[in-house]
Amino acid sequence: MRRMTIVGAATICALAATIPSASGISGGSTLPDGQHTYTAKVETSAGTCSGVLVEPEWVLTAADCLPTEGALGTVTLNKTVPIASQVRRTDRNLSLVKLSQPITGITPVTLASKAPAAGDQLTGIGFGRTKTEWFPEKASVATFTVGAVRPTELDLTGDADTCKGDAGGPLLRGSELVGVHSASWQHGCRGSDSEKQGSVESRTDDINGWIRSQIPSMALTCKSAGNVFITGQNGALRLYQHKGMTQGTFDWVNGGGQQIGSGWLGARTIAGPDNIVWAFVETGELRRFHYLGGTAWEKFDGKDFKVVGSGWGHYSSDPAYRNRVTVDGRGDIYNIQKNGNLDFYRYNAAANSWTHRTITGGWDKYNLIVAAGDGVIYARQPGGELFRYVYDDVTGTLSDHGGVGVGWQMFNSIFSAGGDILYGARANNGGELLWYRYLPASKSWVSGNGKVVGSGWYGEYNLTAAPDSCVPVK
Questions:
Q1: How many domains does the chain divide into?
Q2: What does the alpha-carbon distance between residue 185 and residue 162 come to, in Å, rounded to a whole number?
Q3: Which end of the chain is more exposed for a tag (fewer CB within 10 A), N or C?
Q4: What is residue 220's predicted lDDT score, i.e. its pLDDT?
């Protein structure tokens, strides 16, 4: 059984200040100024650890460095800031900590997505003890060799060992982060007489998806601007493009929009992926449009649309059903039938055919549904309670993620750009358009009260956005 020591924080007596300066983790050298500046010093009630900046407000470190409650400590890079919160992994000695304010002027580390191999030469950095120093002012750097690659850890060999205070520091392959320091035999470290050598790292290469899912700015890939289509009360169809989808900023390509069509009254219009726009017309027709840019639309027998279905009129003519139909990022249509069933439709354009199935019943309790990703469906009850579901189109199963919000009855229209981003138009303050983003991994909202990204949106006839504008990073 291995009985390595966690290379985390440790309190050492004051006589350490009399030890002369020397280089190394326990056999390396002092990190030169200006190199690997994303290496952080993490200080808690227990002492000093290390960390690595992965985004301006986020640092990876070892979970054993941090208390589980109370003040979490501080992180120092080019300034010292308090740690606001942490998210711990349960399968390895690793925590992702959120800072109380962002670090500027330092480029975060690049995350590796490929595992190291046995025999690889890697670079380790940390603020821990050296061979002669208890508390080095500068970080140390050393070269390590991969001895073994295990499911969640790496075993390292070489002339150097990580020491107390190095925990959480980066292990690099070139400029890419492959792990953070966890434990070692402390060979060659100040205050240790261990004759055994070797260090252990917590792997990071295999959990990019988890890291990104916790960090709002990394969890999505968005287009430079998302298409938002507005049908005015005069029937004009206008295109707006929102640049601030990721963080909900008031940033539009064209504040006044661009008219791209007319005569769009009498239909419930919903945008799909790949510039497809669906119109559920009062006559019952389901029309499929393909927007080509500017004011151009693909022609079908001389028309701007192709009729691909019938019997859909109540989603336009009946106010109770206008918000009971939606289109997801795959282009699939979900609708609540009059009998309360939630149904699924997929159109095959090449074959001009449909796949249809009933997903479940009892959805007449919802007065609005909106898709916000591939199979991601938000459903609102009349009292304003908002629920989130995910439909697996392969297995045909619907996962119920439960209630995620209240107070959503204030919006007469809710639409999505994908990526669990929701927009809501309300009457307040001249018809505000509010932006929301839900984080499924942490079951929280980026901004609980929403962010105002527009005005004058409440009285429009129809609002919709391209649902493939943002997609989660896998």
A1: 2
A2: 8
A3: N
A4: 84
Among 424, 432, 421, 426, which residue's Cα sits nearest to residue 454? 432
Same domain, 104 and 227: no
Instruction: Please give the residue range of the domain that contains residue 10.
Output: 5-214
CA dist 300 and 164 (Å) reads: 71
Q: Hunting for tokens 């290379």 — which residue is that? A: 7
188 with 286, same domain: the answer is no
- Scan for tokens 């990580």, then name that residue: 162
Angle, CA of 450, 452 and 454, to the nearest 5°: 140
Q: Alpha-carbon distance 435 to 453, whole Å?
A: 6
Q: Three-class SS of residue 410?
A: helix
Per-residue confidence at 70, pLDDT binned at 50, 70, 90? confident
Q: Which residue(s) pair with 462 in the sheet? A: 231
pLDDT of residue 159: 83
Closest by CA position to 359, among listed 334, 376, 323: 334
Looking at residue 296, what is its pLDDT?
97
In the chain, the N- to C-terminal Cα span, in Å, equals 36
**Backbone phi, psi, residue 392, to 5°:** -90, 110
CB 116 within 8 A of CB 149: yes
* Of 214, 240, 260, the domain-final residue: 214
**180, 185, 188, 190 alpha-carbon torsion, rounded to 10°:** 80
Number of other residues whose CB lies within 10 A of the CB of residue 107? 10
